[in-house]
């Protein structure tokens, strides 16, 4: 599991004083960018220099509790499924003050050649980062810890 913390900014809340629901997808993307910090050049290097992207093909979200301006979120990122060209990341966002689950997002990405805009094999360093955060249940279901196969 990878943990990322961030404080909710003033411009991220709506007229009701709560985080606008679509912002949680942005928070998830921030966590994914931080997850790939170990890759040479980080996430930006992957996109800009190597021209390998991880665009979303599916996003699901649940919002069981509100989040307000000034709250700090603790975002736990895990890999729920890892294929040869795609992965599903799970982000569980907790209010740091009381550890209440505020949002859960499942985000499926496909490794993409950004020049040709077609899916491509997942680079070894990207796979290594993802494998190091595979959920225990996903690892057990394949019979191989850290590798979940599939496409």
TrEMBL record:
GO molecular function, a single term: fatty acyl-CoA hydrolase activity
UniProt name for this protein: 4-hydroxybenzoyl-CoA thioesterase family protein
Natural source organism: Chondromyces apiculatus DSM 436
């Amino acid at each position: 599991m990878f943990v990322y913390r961030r404080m909710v900014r003033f411009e991220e809340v709506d007229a009701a004083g709560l985080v606008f629901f679509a912002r949680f997808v942005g928070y998830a993307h921030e966590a994914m960018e931080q997850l790939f910090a170990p890759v040479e050049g980080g996430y930006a290097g992957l996109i800009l220099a190597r021209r390998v992207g991880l665009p979303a093909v599916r996003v699901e979200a649940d919002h069981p509790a509100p989040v307000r301006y000034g709250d700090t979120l603790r975002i736990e990122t895990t890999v729920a499924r890892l294929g040869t060209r795609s992965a599903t990341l799970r982000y569980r966002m907790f209010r740091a003050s009381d550890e209440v689950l505020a949002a859960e997002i499942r985000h499926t990405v496909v490794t993409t050649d950004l020049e040709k805009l077609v899916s491509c094999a997942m680079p070894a360093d990207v796979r290594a980062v993802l494998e190091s955060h595979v959920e225990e249940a996903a690892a057990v279901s394949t019979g191989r810890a850290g590798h979940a196969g599939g496409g």
